[in-house]
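User: For my dataset I need records formatted as: sequence, then structure tokens, nothing else. Please produce one.
Assistant:
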Amino acid sequence: MKYCKQIFALSVVAILALVSFFPVGSAWGQPSPLFPGDQTPPTFAVSPFFIDATNDGSVIVANTGESGDLCANIYLFTPAGQMTACCACPVKQNGLLELSITDLNKNPVTGVPLTKGVIKVIPGGHCYPAYVNVAAGMKTYQIIRSNTQAVTSPPIPVPDTPLAGGELLTLMRQCQNIMRNGGGLGICSCPAQ
């Protein structure tokens, strides 16, 4: 009985030592491959869009300069949640990029441009939407524009949304599938800078 108590006490000490050495939530103390380093949880922009013959919209991406040059990794979805296009557009440090929804929507994998849907924008350190190196330092805004009148709404900030690792993996896999199997469809294009 005396030895059982000693073994139990040693086991508890060993477990406490492991818990204090490897932080909670880490895989044996290793940083997440999706979210490197000890940064705060990453965020991304999620916004609905509606376009037709009378209205168009734009997404404006501003680089805060926090992480140097960045890429806006862009994903378009139908209202039912099917990804129809993806691409990545560079945004210089302290720079601004305006993306027309109509232009982003010209080459959907379905072959039929959307009139409404969801756009997601993730800031990354390099321009490859099928494997995103998540970075901080991007703010996203939306503008609604009338095609029949000279009326443009002021930029509307798109709130930051926490980005879960599962969501990021799903976006990257769906985009990779489009790039491999879309036959050139589903790759949106960036404006010339």
